[in-house]
Amino acid sequence: MRQGLGWDHMGVEASFGLELGGEHQVSGSEETKDRQVLPAMSTPDSPDGCLLPLHLDSAALDIGLDEVDSFHEAEENVPPFLVTYNLKPLKHQGAVFLKGVPVTAQIAQTERYTSGSKVRTSTLYSVHLTHGHFTWTIKKKYKHFQELHRDLLRHKIFVSLLPFNPLSRFSETRAHVETTSSEMPSLPHASGDSSRRTSSKQKYLAEYLNVLLTTSFYRNYHAMREFLDVSQLSFLADLGPKGLEGLIVKRSGGHRIQGLNCFGHHQICYRWSKRWLVVKDSFLLYQKPDSGEISFVLLFDPGFNTDVGKKSTETKYGVRIENFSRTLILKCSNYRQARFWGQQIKQIAEEHGPDYLRVHRFDAFSPVREKTQVKWFVNGSTYFDAVADALMQAREEIFITDWWLSPEIHLKRPALKDDFRLDIILKHKAEAGVRVNVLLFKEMEMALGINSGYSKRALMLLHPNIKVMRHPDHVSSIVFLWAHHEKMVAIDQSVVFLGGLDLAYGRWDDHSYRLTDVGPGEGAQNGTPKPEVPSEESSMVPQLWLGKDYSNMIFKDWVQLDKPFEDFIDRQKNPRMPWRDVGVVIHGKAARDASRHFIQRWNFTKTIKSKYKCPSFPFLLPKSVSTADKPHYTVPGSHSAQVQLLRSVDWWSAGCSECSILNAYVRCISEAEHYVYIENQFFISCTAGGTIHNTIGDVIVQRILRAYSMNSKFRVFIVIPLIPGFEGNIEMGGGNSIQAILHFTYSTICRGDNSIISRLKEKMGDDWQVYLSVCGLRTHGSMPNGSLVTEFIYIHSKLMIVDDRKVIIGSANINDRSLMGKRDSELAVIVEDTEFITSTMDEKPYQAGRFAHSLRMDCFNTLLGALSPPCFDVSDPVADGFFADVWRSTAFNNASLYDQIFRCLPTNAVHSHRALREYTAVPNLASTSPEWCVELLTQIRGHVVEFPLHFLSTESLLPPLNSKEGVIPTDVWT
Description:
By secondary structure, the chain is α+β, with helices and mostly antiparallel strands.
């Protein structure tokens, strides 16, 4: 079908001297050729001096049978969601309707009202339109039909005067197809309304519209689209219902973000602009009519409200729309119109988007999502592999946000080719039309060497469809201490990966936790070290960790990240630092929630940073949850569970405040019945006030004391890194940064009257060991020269498992930075099982959740080496035989063996700096008697070791005041 012209030709028509007031012939059948268009005159509804056609005659607009659509019943060909990235000016949008799907109109009712000083009443027609499964209602007066008729007639006459164009289908079909068309009766005069005449006119107007809507030549013309209140965004299934659209006048300002508004509140400080407003199920936006560019997106949230009237808007006939981040003022032509807009916007939000209009459990912005497909990942190997496969399935959008992103990271290992390198995958998808949007933390370069500027440049040079924004600007936003710490990858807003894993160097690992990588298969698992005899050539080719990916942050922090394939530590002499982490993938509505969070942050960053206000960095639109359960891709191995998205955000990071991660942690621990397993990069909390404010430590104490008073079994497992992940020589005490974190960690766990263990000892003496275990992880292997070596496994996980039924996985550490909301931004999910398997708890049958139980079993099997002969069962985590005889015993034995063989640090044998110097001066057994040590190492089970609670216990570990670490605010460390 012929589309409407792609340019505004109204001015050109005037140059032809076309007027609707005279008589002219129209093409069509012989009958219509003899018909004359009735003269136009001013009608009671017309503006002064504006001539409108008195009668509406569809025959006058007849262009022949060739241009009448023949609709067929076929599956709707829904326009792709990517049209949101390529919006055209309103007059040049062409076909916006679904192909092969009719548009029908029905005038359901009329309203009669008196406007202003007019004594005469006017009639307002409610036109109900249907297009496939999309329905909407527009309200029009008779004069609006007259204006439409005038515009369409001008359009037709202008096209008929164009020179013959052999490329025009319209010209060809007009020349070859017999043109006949049924006529439509003329409508009565606009004046003299009565109930009978109104009813008759109502019927004729509906017939008139339906005739025109069968013709694409008129249906796709911009005047018809504006009359119907439709645009390119109207019929995208992923944007939900049709919603409300139309031209409005809006006022500038209203942002609740410092620095975005004009100083003062006088009218001269405001600017009024005409915009095309689109209201969808969970957001509204407005576009510039001349360019189609989206100028702002307002997401519905618990702060959403609408109001009408001069008192709340400071504008006659004003409409006030607000959420947590902005107050938007619209100006209407009369009170009736203002009331209509205000009521309709609120009705759409409450009817179609109620999920985001209220605060949910844990004070979270998102609700609990039932029957969500979810899968856990332990370590980067399986996580990166699944991310790579999902990225390859992307059709429309990819969202990535990371604390640190390394463009050249290999997602599948061994890294024999570049096919699965992150930047290569993103480039291929961008070339295929997928839009890639990346949000990176902008670091203080003098304090942190992750070089996000290089990452941004490297990605954006790949393809125009890849956009990267960094936030915050430290000076303008006055944010110097906090970070965007969340990690997320979203595919088409339908599949979302999140957790503790940045797509960055050093993160890839598997359950082997290898210490070396100088050739295929090099490295040994715990147990008997297996000497490798690779060929001379292959042994010198690294395959798992290339260049900067081979790392040990304690030995040396990353440098020269713009040279990704150059080693920065000697892999022949220095072991790498094994990396343990946990991630999760969610689908469906929960994925929509996570994507909405990314969109909120992206749009917030675009709004506050002037360099991103250009159209090349588009506003993003959240997809509707109504289509969330039809993903085109699901990660294999996923299971159904109940999922809720959690986050820590504040006004500086996302334009609103939330600390639902902390609330979820506290409630889950408090409500735990059998055990709590915590695996985290940090463990800094409070038990009795002070400078630390998160109450996780306090609720652990309360829950253990409750179990003690009831004489019931309850276990708390805490697994954290043996040393904080900062560069420093542990043999010299580790440096000020390491000691600062150790100070607050020990203050939380065991040092001072307000520590967890001190408070427990006060009530139960040494019986606290029956309830609580604090451990770290360590492994060992051999270097290429054959020397034995050990290294602790760096725990970067942010994981809690409760009762084999609840799991929290995310990016949030257990400290105030991550949990209080006002500092670092974080993202997490709580997964609650709905599918159960028969297991054992406290030596009794127990229905364990499939998701939580399988994750906990994987953790325990790996940490305890339970699957290596002789194997043992870890299914019952609270039984005395397991907690005392397996978990605590294995941790103690492993720690003792490592101390005996390697004289490891940290250790309980060193209480002071003097003792540290003496301890490190003695050669270790691994260097003096390696053959015997190989035999001893066979007694190591898994990786779990006791956390050395007495290391440097007589020393103050706070940084000296005359050091650079000493002048940093305490909040940075906590």
